[in-house]
Amino acid sequence: MQINSSNIIDRIDTYFSKHTNIKISVLFIVLNAMLFCVIGGYLEDYESLYASICRGLYTDYAINDYLQDFHTVLFSVYSFVNSKFPDYNVYGIWLYVLNILTLCYAGFILFKLFKKFPLFFFVAYLFLALDSILNISSNRIVIVLTSSVFVHLLLNHRLHFFIPFIVYSFCLLVKPEIVVLISFTLIVALWIENKLTKKQLILFAYGLFYFLLIQFLFKHFFSEARQTFLYYELDFFDKSNIDYGHLTATQLLQVDAFKKFNIVDKVHFTNAFYKSIEYKHFYFSWLNIKQCLTCISWIVRQSYVYVLVNIILIALLIWKSNKRTVFCALFLCLSIYVVSFIIKIPDRYLETYYALTALFFAWILITQFKWQRLFLLVFSVACLLILTSFPAKMEQYKNTQTKVERFYTTLYAQNAADSLFVINNVEYLGRYFPPDPFYKIKRQNCTFLNFWYFTTYQSYISRWEKLCRCNPLSLQEKVDFIISNHIPFMTKMKDFLVLKQYLYKMYKMKIRIENFTKVDKDLYQLHLKYQ
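The chain above was modelled as a monomer; its predicted structure follows.
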């Protein structure tokens, strides 16, 4: 019996095209459940760190940290709930659920766009969802939600503005700068395509106003330490345009301590420190060209599948579409690299962004030229290629989780009497912060000496104020507390030597190891004393 593949595709298309919204809802729930069961979902490294802050694993609960640049106001809500359920990862579980809801919302938008091509819709949804399901990230969620909102406004719906407005407002509470950046990109693209509406402009103006309001509040009402974190430290840490030739010996020591060894001291939380450092010209220089090339290199090497699909679709647009559409496509693909000239674009943004641009280009082409089977083939192959990278990613997450569990097992053994420990710094996220959002951990009677720029979080400050009644930003005072009270101190030996050298050069403070025991591979528990 000869099987006609063409007839099979037609029958599948006919079957799914008869489905109602309720049936599609069930389909999404089942599909997401299957994908999460098979693939799993893991917090990206920085998300696991934020989860530990909300849980109060190494700090106080972050209930008073409502003035954050990240998850503004919501951060305190997560932490308050976590204080009622201390053994659970409230932040991680919420991101897990939010990720599912986000993909369902984006899926409904895709269904509206491709409802005449149901089989292609299914493959397109997988193309968008696969990587986002495995790698749980606030940034991915916000990019998908913001893009879905703007497309939603193009569709005819009786709740046309209410739902997009609520979703957009939530996104602003999570990551306002990403929302504004993505919104601006989409506004320009829609204007080029002559599809821009007043409601989209109103939404963008609302987002821009919120972003500027937050910046105003940060500038006028935050402490100097918080301002340095927001306006200097991130830029200082990411960019490589410091003029080392003009640094004094003290400045060089302070710069290297932060940039190379994650050592943060009270000087790193003063505006005067950053203003005193001379910088090389960054904009329109080799430095930002290099930063842009690094961004391009990463996306080509790590996410070649998304790049390849975009190249194929743009080639078809150039062949068949008008100049306006081609210009819009090139703008969407290249604008992210223009932005990378100014700021460092985190790698995790790019895969999600290019998945969305590919779907937008496919929508234009498939509605104009009916090339369903060609696109079905392209996106099916792309999904298979994406899946081939999953075993390595999943193994990496599982290995990280194993390391975390081993660390906590050792920590419980060392901390049998519930005595206080201090850990040097957060340079190795895969040891201290579990990527599994459902992993239960009891709050630890330990804290970090160097908590990177999160040292300005009120939960960290309150924790140290209660412990030592000293300046939580002062490295010297915290080390003095550790030594005076015989607090066990966890660090790598090479990091201890760096810390020892820094304290001597900065404060003429001489410390040495009294005794030590091995805790976890290269991590040691030290007892320190003055020489």
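The first helix runs from residue 5 to 17.
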